[in-house]
What we know:
Elements: H1 11-25, H2 35-46, E1 55-61, H3 68-78, E2 83-89, H4 96-102, E3 109-110, E4 113-114, E5 120-124, H5 135-147, H6 150-160, H7 182-185
Parallel strand pairs: 1-2, 2-5
Antiparallel strand pairs: 3-4
Amino acid sequence: NGNPQNPYCNGIDGVLEAYYQSLKSVRLYGPTHFSPVINHVARYASAITDGSQYFILLIISDGVITDMAQTKESIVNAASLPMSIIIVGVGPAEFDEMIELDGDEERISSQGRYAERDIVQFVPFRDYIDRRGNHILSMARLAKEVLAEIPDQFLSYMRTRGIKPGPLPPPYTPCPLPAIHPLHTRRVSRI
């Protein structure tokens, strides 16, 4: 969101607001280093061990990763934390290395260590541009794909830690207004 000391966004609206604000100040250019931002979010996630928070890092990149070894190491380390990483590739760059980070086909490894679980989802934006002009449908497809792996990644973290959902809150029941409540007896005056 542009604030390294408080990098939280509140819901989708917060993510979109942070994105639009970044368009005003961020210039996309190389080199493309993912490991510093992954490590930054991992520090926050490492402080949470009770399952009360789960972090989702969204990286939007227009370039080829230039710190691949460090990024793999960061992902392997982060795979044991309550976090997921979504990478959206924009522009014409070749994103083969980002596909490798996704870990769908093969669990990512670094220096002989394997990631505990798959925490990365890579989506190339260009695959969701509707050439026929149906912008709403293409954005809905993009959103679906971007978020597709999050539920399983979240559940895999909770299961491996033995964290079970807390009790459900009681169901909401609206308080019925008594028949003599002022709203029931209010008269409409004519002018």
